[in-house]
């Protein structure tokens, strides 16, 4: 073996089942040495004593809105934010683009825009009314899986991505099962939330609390039950996105115990923000399902600690700020713009404050999504032969998030003003430095610099 490209020594390395002080050697973008001491010479040597080395986050749920909607968020700006937050791989959702990713020609248009990504990526295809005959060709073209909505996506038809009616959903599950892919579902019962919203607006009840009450946990659970029945009938693998309640988690856990092929994700905002934050901050903190009460958040942390949550994903869904500033809360665009903070939020809130083991936290952020969506062992873990997707983090470095720190297209976030008790210092993708916070940045309280040109690669395929 020749000289290493990169050697990182002295860090506490977060692995699948333990945290240990290890040295890491990297060559040709791969981890080739992982031991107490790496004696080989390297072109670059990083001394990381006292810091923690984590596998790069695999964010299974982002909305970058290209093609056609890059003024909301694009691949270059969105992936820069992810890199600054320690994410090295993401899976982009099929809606909001013009056109949405519901056919192979649309996928090819998206891929042209995606070549500006700073970090590696995979792509979801969409299941919508009228595109059943496109599912096989999309799978063959390399989408990682399919996404469907059980409630209206909103946005006045932006991207023409429609809710899947029950007939489309059932037939889509049959076809997706035969293709060996996964169906990701936004699970809220449309009949219930539409009726509650209409009644609330009719009565002039249009504030943040009213919005939250129009999308109750019972609507989430009703949709989860319906989808599980269809999946049991069709044999389709399911992944429930942005689950907001412990009650829904337990329904999915019961299905797992029955042997069903089903996983779920929750998001940092459900674990760190409540409906009171939505009232205080306004539509910057609006999402669907909505933020819940402190009591419900406590229950959600309990199922996280019990190992019942498979994945934590950002559901980064940004828009121009003016779309958050509408006549009333129901009209404002719903979506949390927080991709840059996911890893730091979870290490801070989950490990530093709640004392959950780092391997448990990192499994939900990295290992589990990589496994579920067919990206492991290349992604998701610090291990011999894996891609050198690495994040150096200081668990003793506190800072307050400011708008100027953000790398995304529109510099707002519900986490502005929050004091974080850890900080991403450097991010590598396949051994290439893409982000770093140097000494000058730390003194000036900047959020660091993007250290590379766009070089992310498309990870085609599927589970």
CATH architecture of the largest domain: Alpha-Beta Barrel
Most strands sheet? 9 strands, mixed
Radius of gyration: 21 Å
**The CATH homologous superfamily of the largest domain:** Metal-dependent hydrolases
Question: What is the percentage of strand-forming residues?
Answer: 15-25%
What do the pLDDT scores average to?
94
Judging from the principal axes of the Cα atoms, what is the shape?
globular
Count the beta strands. 20
- Based on secondary structure, the structural category is alpha/beta
* The level-1 CATH class of the largest domain: Alpha Beta
Number of helices: 14
Task: Describe the SSE topology.
Blueprint: E1 6-14, E2 19-27, E3 30-35, E4 45-47, E5 52-55, E6 57-62, H1 75-84, E7 87-92, H2 104-114, E8 120-123, E9 125-126, H3 135-141, E10 146-149, H4 166-179, E11 182-186, H5 190-202, H6 208-214, H7 217-234, E12 237-240, H8 246-257, E13 262-266, H9 268-272, H10 275-281, H11 294-305, E14 311-312, H12 342-353, H13 358-372, E15 390-394, E16 399-400, E17 419-420, E18 423-429, E19 432-436, H14 439-444, E20 449-450
Helix pairs in contact: 5-6, 7-8, 12-13
């Amino acid at each position: 073996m020749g000289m290493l490209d990169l050697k990182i020594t002295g860090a506490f390395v977060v692995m699948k089942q333990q945290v240990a002080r290890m040295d890491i050697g990297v060559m040709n973008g791969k981890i080739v040495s992982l031991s107490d001491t790496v004696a080989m010479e390297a072109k670059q040597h990083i001394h990381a004593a006292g810091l923690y080395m984590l596998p790069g986050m695999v964010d299974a749920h982002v909305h970058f809105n290209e093609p056609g909607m890059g003024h909301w968020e694009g691949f270059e700006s969105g992936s820069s934010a992810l890199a600054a937050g320690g994410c090295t791989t993401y899976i982009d959702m099929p809606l909001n683009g013009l056109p949405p990713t519901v056919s192979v020609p649309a996928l090819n248009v998206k891929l042209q825009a995606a070549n500006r990504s700073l970090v590696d990526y995979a792509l979801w295809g969409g299941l919508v009314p009228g595109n059943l005959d496109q599912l096989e060709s999309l799978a063959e073209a390399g989408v990682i899986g399919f996404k469907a909505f059980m409630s209206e996506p909103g946005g006045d038809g932006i991207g023409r991505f429609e809710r899947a009616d029950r007939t489309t959903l059932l037939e889509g599950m049959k076809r997706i099962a035969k293709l060996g892919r996964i169906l990701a579902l936004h699970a809220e019962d449309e009949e219930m939330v539409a009726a509650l919203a209409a009644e609330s607006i009719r009565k002039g009840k249009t504030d943040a609390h009213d919005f939250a009450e129009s999308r109750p946990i019972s609507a989430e659970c009703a949709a989860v039950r319906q989808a599980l029945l269809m999946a049991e009938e069709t044999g389709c693998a399911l992944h429930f996105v942005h689950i907001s309640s412990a009650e829904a988690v337990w329904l999915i856990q019961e299905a797992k115990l029955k042997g069903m092929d089903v996983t779920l994700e929750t998001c940092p905002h459900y674990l760190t923000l409540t409906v009171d934050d939505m009232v205080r901050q306004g539509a910057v903190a609006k999402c669907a399902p909505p933020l819940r009460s402190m009591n419900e958040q406590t229950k959600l942390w309990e199922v996280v600690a019990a190992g019942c949550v498979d994945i934590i994903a950002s559901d980064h869904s940004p828009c121009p700020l003016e779309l958050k500033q509408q006549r009333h809360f129901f009209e404002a665009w719903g979506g949390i713009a927080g991709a840059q903070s996911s890893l730091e939020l979870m290490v801070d809130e989950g490990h530093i404050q709640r004392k959950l083991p780092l391997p448990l936290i990192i499994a939900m952020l990295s290992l589990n999504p990589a496994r579920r969506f067919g990206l492991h062992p290349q992604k998701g873990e610090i291990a011999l032969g894996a891609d050198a997707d690495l994040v150096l983090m200081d668990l003793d470095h506190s800072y307050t998030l400011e708008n100027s720190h953000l790398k995304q297209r529109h510099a707002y976030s519900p986490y502005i003003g929050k004091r974080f008790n850890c900080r991403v210092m450097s991010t590598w993708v396949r051994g290439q430095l893409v982000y770093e916070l140097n000494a000058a940045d730390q003194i000036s309280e900047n959020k660091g610099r993007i250290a590379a040109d766009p070089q992310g690669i498309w990870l085609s395929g599927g589970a």
